[in-house]
Amino acid sequence: MQRSERIWMGAGIALLVIFLATLATAAIVDGFVPPSHVQSIDPTKVSQTPPFDHPGLRKLADGSYEAYYVAHIFAFDPAHLIVPAGAHVTFYVTSSDVEHGFSVPETGVNTMVTPGWVSTVSHTFKTRGKFLLVCNEYCGAGHQLMAGDIEVR
Ligand code: CUA
Questions:
Q1: What is the distance, to the nearest Å, from the Cα of residue 14 to the centroid of all Cα atoms in its chain?
Q2: Which of 22, 83, 89, 96 has its CB surrounded by the most CB atoms within 10 Å?
Q3: Distance 13 CA to ligand 1 centre (A)
Q4: Is 135 left (phi over 0), alpha (psi -120 to 50) or beta?
Q5: Rounded average pLDDT over 61-66
């Protein structure tokens, strides 16, 4: 092997080690969590853990709301949500079983839902109408049936 080949191979391996060490340090020392996941929750006790024991919409102030969702195979709870037009809604979503997605096309609402974590995402619903809510992470045999809707009126 030529000397220049050895040097480039060594540089490649050294970079790989540095990148992996950086990832490992971030994961272990800084406690990296998936993006938009703010709180942890026991996935086996979601149905007993407030406020996920009563999923749905909560009014915080005029025009400001929180929506608590539980994703499970193969449905969202609540399946239907009614929000007033103009409402700013912060979604808190968790899973009681496997990895799911939480996506409301045309709104920018899109997050992964990981068991053990609460994902958050916010949106202001300016236009009236019915929005589809879909799971966009393959979660099993009934994945394509996992949908709900959000009605803005
Ligand atoms: Cu839940 Cu796909």
A1: 35
A2: 89
A3: 39
A4: beta
A5: 94
- Cα(27) to centroid of ligand 1, in Å? 26
Q: Is 66 exposed, middle or buried (0-12, 13-18, 19+ CB in 10 A)?
A: middle
- In angstroms, rounded to a whole number, what is the distance separating the alpha carbons of residues 18 and 13? 9
**For residue 103, what is the DSSP state?**
E
Per-residue model confidence as pLDDT tens digits over 127-144: 999 999 999 999 999 999
Q: What is the DSSP letter of 11?
A: H
Phi then psi dihedrals of residue 13, to 5 deg: -65, -40
* Three-state secondary structure of 28-85: HCCCCCCCCEEEECCHHHHHHCCCCCCCEEEEEECCEEEEEEEEECCEEECCEEEECC
The residue whose CA has the least distance to atom 1 of ligand 1 is 100
Reduced DSSP (H G I as helix, E B as strand, rest coil) percent helix, strand, coil of the chain, to 5: 25, 40, 35
Report pLDDT for 5.
95
pTM of the predicted model as reported, rounded to 2 decimal places: 0.80
- Ligand 1: does its nearest atom lie under 6 Å from the Cβ of 135? yes
Give the Cβ contact number of residue 146 at 10 Å: 22
Give the pLDDT score at 39: 86
